[in-house]
Write a sequence for this structure.
């Protein structure tokens, strides 16, 4: 009872701190507005006119006095020597971004959920309660639920696009990941170590004594099939949601490598962050990792380097290390994304013709 009381108090304290400190102290806002990221400011009409050798555009009042009523859009040559000014990103700049408030709330909630989970695990390791529920797991489940909600909001934005190209790409990748998920479920546990069959068998053995006296044991195979179909549908949905973020991450990775051409340590960090997810996934391929570490060949004999429990712990720590590694590379990827404006201006100089000034300002 005491442990449950402590967990409830910590949960309420975390919720209160998250509500009170969010306007003043936010980890999500600090990631964007800590002064290390800078954006490119769009040029004004006066600056574009000066670069194009034109006079400053008259105001509407001056045009009305001179008898000029038509309002022609300002256009400048594409090959002007346009140099963009930079400015550190502030909270005011971030507030105008779409979905910034959702991003801030979700990241802050994930941070508090991680803190509550670490605290709960520490108490369970020290006190070893037998009947209490770990509320940290509930916070983690809520984080996963809110993450799916964010994915749904982003997917809805893609489907509401006027062009319609994003919708077709998302549907194509959804069917692709649907096929891959079905193939993954067919692979036996000796190759892909999901632990799905063992978990379903444990649930079936627990429900069978309850359903058999009522004559409902025939529902167990249907429940297994429905659960697997649900996993396939969830995998397809996540694959469709992560299509455009994955493509953008690949592009920003290349741009970040170009920006860090003279910093080999930063390039090493970026390469490790890009390859690390594949290495972590391979830890669930049984012949490549578990069988090799538990029965490592040494001449004509085999040596056990790790036990089963140690290997499971190693995989969990690998996920934590992957998260920290990706967090360290976040600043470089964000700055590479902000550098798209400068790259677009360099590409604009190599073109001929004229372009409206408003298009330049909107693009930057």
């Amino acid at each position: 009872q005491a442990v449950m009381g402590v967990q409830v108090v910590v949960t309420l304290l975390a919720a209160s701190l998250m509500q009170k400190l969010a306007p003043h102290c936010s980890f999500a806002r600090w990631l964007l507005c800590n002064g290390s990221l800078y954006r490119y400011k769009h040029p004004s009409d006066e600056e574009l006119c000066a670069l194009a050798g034109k006079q400053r555009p008259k105001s509407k009042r001056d045009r009305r006095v001179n008898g000029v009523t038509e309002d022609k859009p300002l256009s400048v040559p594409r090959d002007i020597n346009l140099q963009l000014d930079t400015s550190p990103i502030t909270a005011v700049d971030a507030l105008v971004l779409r979905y910034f408030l959702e991003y801030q709330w979700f990241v802050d909630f994930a941070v508090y959920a991680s803190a509550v989970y670490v605290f709960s695990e520490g108490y369970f390791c020290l006190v070893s309660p037998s009947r209490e529920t770990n509320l940290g797991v509930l916070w983690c489940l809520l984080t996963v639920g809110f993450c799916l909600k964010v994915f749904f909001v982003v997917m809805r934005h893609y489907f509401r696009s006027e062009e319609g190209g994003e919708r077709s790409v998302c549907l194509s990748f959804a069917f692709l990941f649907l096929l891959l998920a079905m193939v993954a479920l067919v692979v036996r546990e000796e190759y892909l170590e999901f632990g799905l069959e063992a978990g379903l068998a444990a649930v079936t053995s627990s429900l069978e004594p309850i359903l058999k006296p009522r004559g409902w044991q025939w529902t167990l195979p249907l429940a297994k099939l429905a659960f697997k179909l649900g996993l396939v549908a969830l995998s397809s949905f996540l694959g469709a949601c992560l299509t455009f973020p994955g493509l953008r991450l690949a592009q920003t990775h290349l741009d970040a490598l170009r920006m860090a051409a003279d910093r080999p340590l930063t390039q090493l960090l970026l390469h490790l962050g890009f390859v690390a997810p594949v290495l972590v996934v391979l830890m669930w391929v049984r012949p490549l990792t578990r069988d090799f570490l538990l029965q490592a060949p040494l001449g004509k004999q085999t040596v056990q380097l790790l036990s089963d429990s140690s290997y499971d712990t190693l995989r969990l720590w690998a996920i934590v290390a992957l998260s920290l590694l990706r967090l360290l590379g976040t600043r470089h990827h964000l700055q590479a994304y902000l550098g798209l404006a400068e790259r677009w201006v360099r590409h604009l100089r190599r073109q001929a013709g004229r372009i409206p000034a408003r298009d330049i300002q909107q693009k930057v």
Notes: The longest helix spans residues 100-127. The first strand starts at residue 38 and ends at 41. The chain is about 70% helix and 5% strand. The chain has a mean pLDDT of 82.
